[in-house]
């Protein structure tokens, strides 16, 4: 980014310029442009910028040459501000689509060190246009006279797992390089619409263990596969600025703050990461089991940390220079008690969606399923939730089962479903839950909203899911409101969705991880921007820009054919409430209808003029 | 008067899962958390007899107080 004047960018966004590289994969032509920002959303970056480009395109089919894959960073990516590591991938999604059949605009984000390396090449954004006839990978390098780009043949990477691709590339680029790759899932894009993009981490390259981070949601890896782009390399020496006392203080506040404390290790007095959700939600019998149907018993406790720890070794680790050690990395425990082979990383989502939600209660088995999904490069949420539907269907229809006939709790058969989906053998699963359930005519227990599978929080606890624009809990921060505060009124939910809930997406613009633990409107964020970039952006302007970006996303959904009726929850919530959940049951059809009316009454007037 | 206190997840670390405590006068939730040396900001959810409650709510004989930590998505 380049700044021309000292005028605050909220007043003159065009004084901030970003560096875009456009690559035509069909012809190999490469162009660079220094582009003045049109508004504060473009200054902040991430989906705030990419969605404006997507809004300028008319795309009716995700796998079409006119659908660009946009990779960019946020304003704080690659700075010294803790968690400033994010890379964003945006496009019209092969997975998420309206009932009209049009693809929705989506973005997905990942940490790791790749984003910083990319930014240090001198670029803020790359737009991959069209598709290559042959498999290629792109190399972005920091040169003396600016960024350099090459497209190289990638046949040697075909068929390799995400981790194998990264380690193969590391051997070719042993110095100062990080990597973003797809797995077999993305390569099999015709049968797999939920392909993820894996990005490398320092820990992975140092240890040789499969510790990638994933931009999973929405099938960005599948689109990369369609484009025949198997990997992206970012090469640059580290270019971190000197840490000033002010930045040190900001990072101190982040790492010691109560917001991030819940993600810190137990041994450090923290909450132990998102894994703790298991124990908290179980207090209400609200941990998803057997396709989001808690049973009201204690079976899920087998996956509580204290029980998993009996068989496996857990190590808390973090991303590059991040003091929030939120990764619960799981290793085999040797006979002598020492740490053995790395197995997987346990976050609440994959742990639950490949665990109790499939009636798998063994830590080592869950680790194996997560590892398989990661290696094949698929989104753990989309695949886990789709498989839970398949198991549910098979239980209801033993005479005409889906896939390999797997049932709840059958580890070997479920592993076969994971591997087979990634290899393209189960396209009915790989193309996602909405398509599958509609083709079968059994949608009531298909746990998705607007074509994107839900994460591991029960739909009956969060009507805000209906207004999430890029993933149920990552783009609408209301998923814990009922459990945390017991809120059930229309006033409370309308206020949450139209207020703080939507600000969740701000992190997916500015380059910070959500685990930074303070709201986007917190003075600390504004201060961090000032210290790291010199830009003066008031908190109120930040919040307003994030709100516009969110509403632009919502407007774009509507333009892609979403009707008001699609802003709802899985039908089972209304027709078959679960008696075991002890949280208040409050989401009736009438409640949802009134909520929709009230939320749109706030949003619609603000959406005018946000699209070209 | 006697109350039952239940702790969950990280709040159990170096404490307990469940215990009974005697109080001479009805305590507030804040008083109980202070007695247990639990920083106020570490408590994300407070339940009294299974219903959401606040830090200033006062407990009665036989009440079950459940304290749960802050939680977050991911």
Description of the structure:
The complex is a heterodimer of chains A (612) and B (74). With 612 residues, chain A is of the alpha+beta class. In chain A, 34% of the residues lie in helices and 17% in strands. Chain A has 24 helices and 18 strands. In chain A, the strands form 4 sheets. In chain A, strands 1, 2, 3, 4, 5, 6 and 7 form a 7-stranded mixed β-sheet that branches. In chain A, strands 9-8-13-10-11-12 form a 6-stranded mixed β-sheet, with helices on both faces. Chain A has a 3-stranded antiparallel β-sheet with strand order 14-15-16, with helices on one face. In chain A, strand 17 (448-449) and strand 18 form a beta hairpin. Chain B has one helix at 29-35; strands spanning 2-7, 18-22, 43-48, 51-52, 64-69. Chain B has 74 residues and is mainly beta. The interface between A and B is medium-sized, with 34 and 20 residues.
Topology:
The complex is a heterodimer of chains A (612) and B (74).
Chain A lengths: L1 E2 L12 E9 L5 E7 L3 H5 L2 H9 L13 E5 L13 E11 L5 E8 L3 H7 L4 E5 L6 E8 L2 E8 L8 H11 L4 E6 L1 H4 L9 E3 L2 H6 L5 E3 L4 H7 L2 E7 L9 H12 L1 H4 L15 H6 L22 H4 L3 E6 L9 E7 L5 E7 L2 H6 L9 H14 L3 H17 L14 H12 L4 H4 L2 H8 L7 E2 L2 E2 L27 H5 L4 H9 L8 H4 L12 H11 L5 H21 L12 H4 L13 H19 L5
Helix pairs in contact in A: 2-22, 8-21, 13-15, 19-24
Chain B lengths: L1 E6 L10 E5 L6 H7 L7 E6 L2 E2 L11 E6 L5
Parallel strand pairs in B: 1-5
Antiparallel strand pairs in B: 1-2, 3-4, 3-5
Features:
heterodimer; A: 612 residues; alpha+beta; seven-stranded mixed β-sheet; six-stranded mixed β-sheet; 24 helices; 34% helix; B: 74 residues; mainly beta; five-stranded mixed β-sheet; 1 helix; 5 strands; 9% helix
């Amino acid at each position: 980014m380049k700044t021309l004047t000292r005028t605050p960018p909220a007043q003159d966004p065009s004084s901030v310029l970003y560096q875009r590289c456009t690559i035509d994969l069909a012809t190999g032509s490469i162009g660079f442009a220094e582009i003045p920002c049109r508004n504060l959303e473009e200054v902040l970056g991430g989906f705030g910028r990419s969605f404006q480009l997507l809004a300028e395109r008319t795309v009716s089919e995700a796998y079409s040459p006119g659908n660009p894959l946009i990779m960019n960073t946020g304003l704080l990516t690659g700075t010294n501000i803790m968690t400033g590591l994010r890379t964003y991938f945006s496009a019209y999604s092969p997975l998420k689509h309206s009932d009209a059949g049009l693809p929705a605009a989506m973005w997905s984000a990942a940490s790791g060190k790749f984003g910083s390396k990319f930014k240090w090449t001198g670029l803020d954004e790359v737009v991959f246009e069209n598709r290559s006839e042959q498999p290629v990978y792109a190399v972005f390098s920091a040169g003396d006279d600016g960024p350099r780009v090459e497209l190289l043949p990638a046949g040697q990477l075909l068929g390799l797992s995400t981790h194998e691709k990264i380690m193969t590339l590391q051997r070719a680029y042993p110095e100062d390089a990080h990597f973003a790759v797809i797995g077999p899932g993305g390569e099999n894009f015709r049968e797999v619409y939920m392909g993820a993009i894996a990005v490398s981490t320092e820990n992975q390259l140092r240890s040789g263990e499969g510790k990638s981070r994933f931009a999973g949601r929405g099938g960005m890896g599948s689109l990369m596969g369609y484009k025949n782009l198997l990997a992206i390399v970012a090469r640059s020496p580290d270019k971190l600025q000197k840490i000033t006392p002010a930045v040190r203080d900001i990072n101190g506040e982040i790492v010691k703050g109560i917001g991030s404390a819940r993600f810190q290790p137990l041994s450090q007095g923290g909450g132990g990461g998102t894994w703790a959700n298991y124990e908290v939600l179980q207090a209400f019998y609200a941990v998803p089991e057997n396709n989001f149907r808690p049973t009201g018993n204690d079976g899920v406790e087998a996956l509580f940390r204290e029980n998993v720890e009996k068989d496996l070794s857990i190590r808390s680790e973090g991303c590059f220079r991040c003091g929030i050690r939120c990764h619960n990395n799981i290793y085999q425990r040797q006979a002598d008690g020492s740490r053995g082979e790395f197995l997987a990383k346990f976050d609440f989502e994959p742990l639950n969606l490949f665990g109790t939600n499939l009636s798998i209660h063994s830590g080592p088995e869950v680790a194996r399923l997560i590892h398989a999904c990661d290696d094949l490069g698929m989104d753990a949420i989309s695949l886990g939730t789709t498989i839970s539907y398949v198991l549910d269907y098979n239980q209801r229809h033993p005479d005409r089962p889906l896939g390999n006939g797997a049932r709840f709790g059958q580890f070997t058969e479920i592993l076969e479903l994971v591997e087979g989906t990634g290899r393209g053998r189960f396209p009915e699963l790989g193309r996602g839950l909405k398509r599958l359930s509609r083709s079968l005519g059994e949608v009531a227990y298909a746990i998705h909203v607007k074509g994107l599978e839900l994460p591991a929080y029960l739909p009956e606890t969060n009507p805000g899911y209906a207004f999430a624009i890029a993933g149920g809990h990552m783009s609408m921060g209301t998923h814990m409101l009922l459990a945390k505060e017991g809120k059930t009124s229309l006033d409370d939910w309308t206020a949450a969705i139209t207020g703080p809930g939507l600000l969740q997406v701000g992190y997916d613009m500015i380059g910070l991880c959500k685990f930074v633990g303070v709201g986007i409107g917190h003075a600390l964020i504004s201060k961090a921007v000032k210290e790291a970039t010199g830009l003066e952006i008031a908190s109120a302007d930040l919040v307003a820009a994030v709100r516009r970006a969110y509403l632009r996303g919502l407007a774009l959904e509507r333009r892609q054919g979403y009707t008001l009726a699609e802003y709802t929850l899985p039908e089972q919530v209304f027709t078959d409430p679960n008696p075991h959940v002890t949280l208040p049951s409050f989401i009736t059809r009438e409640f949802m209808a009134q909520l929709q009316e009230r939320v749109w009454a706030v949003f619609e007037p603000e959406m005018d003029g946000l699209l070209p | 008067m006697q109350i039952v206190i239940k702790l969950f997840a990280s709040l159990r670390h170096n404490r307990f899962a469940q215990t009974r405590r005697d109080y001479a006068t009805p305590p507030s939730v804040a008083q109980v958390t202070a007695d247990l040396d639990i920083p106020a900001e570490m408590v994300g959810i407070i339940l009294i007899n299974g219903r959401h409650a606040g830090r200033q709510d006062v407990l009665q004989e036989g009440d079950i107080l459940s304290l749960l930590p802050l939680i977050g998505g991911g």
